[in-house]
Amino acid sequence: MRSLLIxxxxxxxLAGNALSHPTKNAGPVKRRxxxxxxxxxxxxxFHSSPYQIQTGxxxxxxxxxxxxxxxxxxxxxxxxxxxQSMSYKIRKDSYTDKNTGVTHVYVRQVVNGLEVADGxxxxxxxxxxxxxxxxxxxxxxxxxxxxxxxxSLLSDPHRxxxxxxxxxxxxxxxxxxYESQVAFNNPHISELSHVHxxxxxxxxxxxxxxxxxxxxxxxxxxxxxxxxxxxxxxxDDVVEDILDNFDKHMNEMIVESPTEHFAPTDGPAELLVxxxxxxxxxxxxxxxxxxxxxxxxxxxxxxVVWKFEVEMQDNWYEAAVxxxxxxxxxxxxDWASDAPIPTEPEVSELATYNVFPWGINDPSxxxxxIVKENIDSxxxxxxxxxxxxxxxxxxxxxxxxxxxxxxxxxxxTWGNNVxxxxxxxxxxxxxxxxxxxxxxxxxxxxxxxxxxxxxSDAQExxxxxxxxxxAQLFYTTNLVHDLxxxxxxxxxxxxxxxxxxxxxxKENDAVIANAQDGSGYNxxxxxxxxxxxNGRMRMYLWNTANPYRDGDLEAGxxxxxxxHGLSTRLTGGxxxxxxxxxxxxxxxxxxxxxxxxxxxxxxxxxxxxxMGAWAANTPKGIRNYVYSLDESVNPSTYxxxxxxxxxxxxxxxxxxxxxxxxxxxxxxxxxGYSDVLxxxxxxxxxxxxxxxxYRPSSGKKPLVPKHGNSLSVQLVLNGMKLQSCRPSFFDAxxxxxxxxxxxxxxxxxxxxxxxxxxxxxxxDAKVEGRTPWGGGIxxxxxxxxxxxxxx
Length: 791
Known about the structure:
Layout: H1 2-7, E1 45-47, H2 66-78, E2 86-90, E3 95-96, E4 103-111, E5 114-126, E6 129-135, H3 157-173, H4 181-185, H5 187-200, H6 205-208, H7 222-232, H8 236-244, H9 246-252, E7 254-256, E8 271-274, E9 283-293, E10 300-311, E11 316-322, E12 329-334, E13 352-355, E14 369-372, E15 386-388, E16 407-409, E17 418-422, E18 443-444, H10 458-463, H11 466-486, E19 511-515, E20 524-527, E21 536-539, E22 541-542, E23 549-550, H12 555-570, H13 583-601, H14 613-616, H15 649-671, H16 708-722, H17 729-744, H18 749-758, E24 766-768, E25 777-779
Parallel strand pairs: 13-18, 17-19, 19-21
Antiparallel strand pairs: 1-6, 2-4, 3-4, 4-5, 5-6, 7-8, 8-9, 9-10, 10-11, 11-12, 13-14, 15-16, 20-21, 22-23, 24-25
C-alpha cells in the first residue's frame, strides 16, 4: 500500500490529468501530492448591487478618505457586534487602482486580540460610495477570552471532505478505491483517487495517535505541526520517522525569537521554527481563530488554531491546525498552483533574443526570430536586465562603494522581474544555477534543433538546448509581467518585482523561473506566497514525443502558470494567498490561466484552441475539451460541474475558462478585435496616448480599451480585484459585471449577461447543497435580466 501511495503523487500545476508517453529511459512520471480543503462559510456574501449595500449607509462626500469610508461602513455593518472582545483591522495591503480610482480595502476580523484567519471583508469604494463588498466575518457568539470550543460540538472539515471523496470513489469504481483497475484506466477516477490519496491517507491520525502526540497544551505548537507534516509529506520514510521518533523531533525543533518589525505589530508574535522534518525553510507559526461549522445544522463556532506557513520542496502550505488535542487540520491551502523613478541605468544597447515571438504559442505555429528587449517606461522602467544592487539576492552580504551607483546591469537572464535558470537537480537553490551569459552585446542567440534519439539519451539531448530554453522563458515571463502591469497588476496590487520604484507594495519578490526543472515531467507549477516573497515557477520537459518537448517553449503553459500569481495576488488582496484554495475558487484559479493564455495566442480570424497540445503531443491537448464557441465541440455549462470527473480544480477551471471564452467573443462581436494586446507606450511626459487602443478620455475618467479582446482582459483583471476571498462562480461573474459598470458605466451589461447565460450562468442559475470543495446540485440559468429581454 505504501509503494502505491508514493507512486500516485503527481505534479499538478498545469496538467491535472496530463497524458504521458514515456520513452525508454523515462521511468514513472511523479505526481505532486497536494492538500487543499477547509470549512464551509454559508454565511459569506458578496454584494455588488446598490440595493444589497447595507441599508441606511449613505455615501460620504466624493473627496472623503476611502479608509474613513471603510471604517464607517464596517462599523455600520457590525453594529452591536463591535465589543471589547470583537474588533477589526484594516490591512496594510489595501490600495487604490490608479486607472479606475476604486480603492480596494481589506479588513480582517479580530477576536480577543487574535485574527480570525477566515474572517475577511473586502470593500470597494469610489468617490465616497461603497460599490460592493464581500464579508465572511464570524457572526456567532464571541468568546469572552481566548479559549477553545468543545471539540464535540464541531464538525471535522478534513473528515467530512474525505468521507465524500470515499463515497464518490465507491460509487464510480464499485470496489476498493485504491486497488480498482478502473481507477487507473479512467482519467477522471484516477484524478479523484489521487485527490483522495493526497488528502486522506492520514485523516484519522488525530484520533488514533498515541497520547504523546496529543499533548493538550495550546501554547505548544509542536505536536500540531508534526501531525500536519505527517499529512503533508509525500515521503513515507519521513512519515515513519516522525511516528517512531515523535518526541525526538519535538525536542529538536529550534524556535527563533519572534520576527522583528521596525514598528510594533498587533496580535501574537510570529514564531520561526527550524528543524521541521521535510521543510526547506523555517516554518512560520502564530495563533489565530478559525470558523468551524458545528454539528448542529447552521451553527458556526470559533476554534483556536495554530496557523503555519510551511515551505516544502514541492508545496508551500498555509495551514490551520487545532491548537488543542486532537490536533485536526481545519484548513489548508497550497500556494503552489499545480511613483518617482530613479535615474535609469546606462544601457549600451538593448538585449536581443532568438525566440518564438509573442503570439506564437509553440514551435508548431511558427519560426523563431530575433526580437528586441521590450522597454516599457511604466511596466519595466529599467528594462529587463537591470536590478538595484541592494535588491539583488546574489549579492547579499557584499559591500558596495558609491562608485557603483544604484543599478547593476546584467548580461544574463537575471533582472528585476524574473530570475530564469536551469534546475536539472530539481532542488530549491537557484542563485548559482546555470543561466546563459550573452556578454556585452546581450545577444541571446542560440540554436534549437533537437534530434530524435534511441531514448536512452533523450533528456541529455533536450539539455543541449538549455540556453535557448532559458532565453525563451526569460523573454515570455518578462512580457507577461509587462502586459499584466499595463492592465493593472502593479506594485500596490502585489505584482512580482525585486524593486518597486517607490510606487508602493512589497519588494524582493521577482519570479524565480526554473527551466527544465528536474523534479518532474509533463507539467508545470507556480507557488504564490503573499506579496514580498518570491513567486516560484517550475517548467518541465515533456516525454510525450521523441525528441522530448520542452514546456518552456509553449507560451500558453508559461502564461497559465504566471496567471496563478496574478489571480492569487489580486483576489482578496496581495497579502492574502489563501483565497483560491479549493472548489470553485481553486478551479477559477486554473480557468483564468487557460482563458488568458488562449486570449493572448488568438488572432482576428476566430479559431478553437487546445491547451498544452504541443507539449502533450496530442491535438486535443490536456483538457477534456478544446475551447470553442461550438457546443458540439465544447458542451461545458455551469451544470457540467455536477458531472463525475469535475471534482478537481483543473476540470472546474475548464468550465470557467470556457464561459469566459464565450463572454469574450460576445464583446468582440460588439467592439471588434485588436491585433495588439499591449497598450501604447507612454509619451515622454508620462501620459498614455489613446492611439487605436483606448477610447478618447478626459479628466478623471479611466482608460477604456476600445476592442472586445482587450476589454475582456481588462474586465477580468478588474473583476479579480473586486471579488471576495473564496469567490464562487456567481461572485466572480458579478464582479466582472460590476467591473464594467465602473469602467464603462455599464454599457456592456446585457452583452456580458448574454455571454454568461449562453453557458448556463444567467441570473436564474442556482446551486443547492454547495460544499466548499465544489459539490452540490446545480441548475443552469439561461434567462437574461429583465432589462435585457426583448420587449
